[in-house]
Design a protein that fits this description.
Chain A: It comes from Flemingia macrophylla. The complex is a heterodimer of chains A (about 375) and B (about 190). With about 375 residues, chain A is mainly beta. Chain A contains four helices and 25 strands. The chains are: A mainly beta (about 375), B mainly alpha (about 190).
Chain lengths: ~375, ~190
């Protein structure tokens, strides 16, 4: 039973439902048993995510860099980038403490961190799950092979030892799997030369970090973690730009589901800024020996200060300092903008005081269960 | 006589007596005619449920993946109109309109889509969605699915049941909590 005559076939109905917002789907669970079972099914969750991630939102987390912590606030930008709509994105839960932050986003799940404690949160279904994970550096991602979400935690070798570069070295790693609900230690010998990791970037099947060695603060190494098979690999980064730069910084990003790296530099304090974007090609092909980094574009020099933060739908999410002539590093206003690297057009999203920090994530809502 | 290149052909025609040349010109005309005919044949005829026949040009036909696969795999005699027993002439003409606009209207496609949608009531929308699904036209199917989601996303479950002709069978879930009362109603 279920559908009378003239009703649409099951697969057509599923095609319509898979394009609905999660809020509507939760309301439509009580339409019929058939719909309830469909909406609950893992297959439908996957189908829905497929459509939802085609038009992802840009999630901007804002918090103050003050001594007294203030809970973060969030904004959603999107879904279309030609005329970006900015809406408040209230967290449906009251953060237990003001120190909690969003640190990663994957398939509609946000990874929350409070110092060394982690939890996963699905804002669309309003479900939260605390994880038995404690670590200094982390990575969060999805593996389609076993349809599992995993958190990899990286910690230092020696605990509770006064700060000393040598003791800051990492060398232990744990993996927590959402499917199994448990964590286990994995081999992390490859990580032992490193003592600091950047915020992670996840691409289906892999998590990437920029890692630094103890006394070699200026060079970055790319570390990759295979989420399915649970092992680390060291990759070569793209070649550094030629010439001497008084300032240069690397930043990982995702460009069309591939690992990308911004190289952001300027030659002197009064000199213009530039940045390049490199993309790691063929990382899915394991037969290729070595890394193939391709320079996608090189933009600048700019007379203004423009920091790339991430990529959202082919545009660069940037932070721009708005300041009076001559006072470049003085406190003032900052603007988060979308910069088109091909036309050099830039759209301002949010203006803020310089004591605020915006951290961008790509967010697509999902029914993924916790 | 073996003719290999076009230049040579003309050269040899010029050297030949007039009657041979005339015959060759006739041949050439026939060839051209055949080419034109071949193009005509590529236009496939489709016959709707109400016995109307449509001539559809290849670029539009390409969108109809189902008809394409019929022609390719079933080796259908394309001189006979392909019957589409579950599509009305009205819907087929709408479908052809949509595919045409989608291919050639680059400037105000969104405007066309808006007009297209406005001209349809809910029942017609459903019929068209089924037709697009049957013919496997991805662009139209996606467009209609998205239009459906816009229509229903803010509605109540009651509206949805009505809209999709779905029988409310969720009472039986409640009946677990109130078995005595529910049983007598359901049995009727």
């Amino acid at each position: 039973m279920g559908s009378k005559q003239e009703g649409l076939p099951h697969d057509v109905v599923m095609n319509i439902l898979a394009r609905l917002p999660v809020k509507s789907l939760l309301r439509f669970k009580c339409v019929s048993k058939e719909w309830l079972n469909l909406i609950k099914s893992p297959f439908f969750t996957q189908q829905h995510l497929l459509y939802s991630s085609r038009n992802p939102f840009l999630l901007l987390q804002r918090y103050h860099c003050q001594v007294l912590p203030v809970p973060f606030t969030c904004y959603l930008v999107g879904p279309h980038n030609n005329n970006p709509q900015i809406t408040d994105f209230p967290m449906p839960f009251q953060p237990p403490t003001a120190r909690i932050r969003i640190v990663a986003s994957c398939n509609g799940l946000l990874c929350l961190r409070e110092k060394t404690k982690f939890s996963l949160f699905n804002p669309a279904t309003n479900r939260i799950k605390n994880l038995p994970v404690k670590c200094r550096y982390f990575g969060f991602g999805f593996t389609p092979q076993s349809n599992d979400y995993k958190i990899v935690g990286i910690s230092t070798l020696v605990k509770d030892v006064p700060a000393n570069l040598d003791h800051d070295r990492v060398g232990r790693a744990h993996v927590y799997s959402l499917n199994s609900g448990s964590s286990k230690e994995i081999d992390a010998v490859k990580l032992q030369p490193f003592c600091s990791f950047s915020t992670p970037v996840a691409i289906t099947g892999n998590v990437f970090w920029l890692a630094k060695k103890g006394y070699d603060r200026n060079s970055d190494y790319v570390v990759s973690f295979d989420i399915e098979r649970e092992f680390f690999t060291l990759l070569n980064g793209p070649p550094s730009p030629t010439g001497s730069h008084s300032y240069s910084k690397n930043l990982l990003a995702v460009c069309n589901d591939k690992l990308a790296m911004f190289h952001h530099y300027f030659r002197g304090i009064r000199e213009p800024y530039s940045f390049d974007l490199w993309v790691l090609e063929g990382s899915d092909n394991r037969d290729v020996v070595g890394e193939c980094w391709v320079k996608m574009y090189s933009v600048g020099p700019f007379s203004r200060i423009l920091y790339p933060l991430s990529i959202w739908r082919d545009e660069v999410v940037c932070e721009e300092a708005v300041c009076e002539e001559g006072i470049r590093f003085a406190g003032g206003k900052k603007v988060v903008s979308l910069f088109n690297p091909f036309t050099y057009e830039s759209k301002n999203l949010l203006a803020h005081r310089s004591d605020c920090l915006y951290v961008p994530f790509t967010y697509a809502e999902s029914l993924v269960q916790l | 006589m073996v003719i290999t290149a076009k230049g040579k052909e003309i050269l040899e025609i010029a050297e030949e007596p007039e009657y041979v040349m005339l015959a060759k010109v006739e041949d050439l005309k026939m060839d051209m005619l055949r080419i034109v005919e071949e193009e005509e044949i590529k236009k496939i005829r489709l016959k709707t449920s109400d016995e109307a026949t449509f001539e559809v040009e290849p670029s539009i036909l390409k969108e109809m993946k189902r008809v394409q696969s019929l022609i390719n795999t079933e080796a259908i005699d394309t001189s006979v109109a392909i019957p589409l027993p579950n599509i009305t002439s009205r819907n087929l003409s709408r479908i052809i309109d949509f595919c045409w606009e989608h291919q050639y209207n680059t400037e105000n496609l969104e405007e066309f889509k808006g007009r297209f949608l406005k001209s349809l009531n809910h029942q017609e929308l459903k019929e068209l969605l089924l037709a697009a699904n049957y013919l496997n036209i991805k662009t139209l199917f996606d467009f209609l699915c998205n239009s459906f989601t816009d229509l229903i996303q803010n509605e109540s479950p009651e509206f949805i049941r009505d809209f999709f002709n779905i029988l409310n069978d969720t009472n039986s879930v409640k009946s677990m909590h109130a078995p005595a009362f529910q049983g007598s109603i359901d049995d009727d």
